[in-house]
Amino acid sequence: MPYAIRTATEADAPTIARLHLASYRAAYRGLLPDAFLAAYDVSERERRWRESLHDPTRTTFVAESGSAIAAFAEISSTGELKALHVAETHWRQGIGGALHARAVHALKAAGLQSAVLWVLNGNRRACTFYEAVGWLPTGETRHRILRGTEVTELRYRLQWP
User: Are 106 and 133 in contact (CB under 8 A)?
Assistant: First the structure.
């Protein structure tokens, strides 16, 4: 199915919030406790996305399939791929790869020489995807407490000539 990639606007916040939660729950099912995943609230996510879409140090891109947003990616001016989420119904259809390419292009265009991202330890689908498009694990980890649940994340780096 054809899709278009564009920069997100504040009007996209509710849709991005719903997609974020659905994608998060699908991707992390079995990696994080069910109660943890269920506790996320769409209004809280929408508030966070409204703030992020107004933050001049962040850029969010959305990929539309037809008239619906099927994926989003967020980057920061510091060179971090902060998020890349695809609706489960669009997994393995190339939309994530195209959106990733758009995000990396924007980072390069900003004059950055490399980028980093963090992946939840155990998220093999994400690790496989990122490694296939050139990201390399740095060996660094970070441990965080999210809503009372300890998570470990793995750091990846992408460098370009």
Answer: no
Burial class (CB in 10 A: 0-12, 13-18, 19+), 82: middle
From first to last of the 161 residues of the chain, give the pLDDT tens digit: 578 999 999 999 999 999 999 888 888 888 877 787 787 888 988 999 999 999 999 999 999 988 889 999 999 999 999 999 998 888 888 899 999 999 999 999 999 999 999 999 999 999 999 999 999 999 999 998 877 778 899 999 999 97
3-113: CATH homologous superfamily? Gcn5-related N-acetyltransferase (GNAT) (3.40.630.30)
DSSP calls for 84-107: EEE-GGGTTSSHHHHHHHHHHHHH
- The span from the CA of 34 to the CA of 37, in Å, is 5
- pTM, two decimals, is 0.91
Strand order in the sheet with 114-120: 114-120, 149-159, 136-146
From start to end of the chain, where are the E strands? 3-7, 58-65, 68-76, 81-86, 114-120, 136-146, 149-159
What are the residue ranges spanned by the domains of the chain?
3-113
DSSP 75: E
Q: Which two tokens stand for residue 81?
A: 């791929």
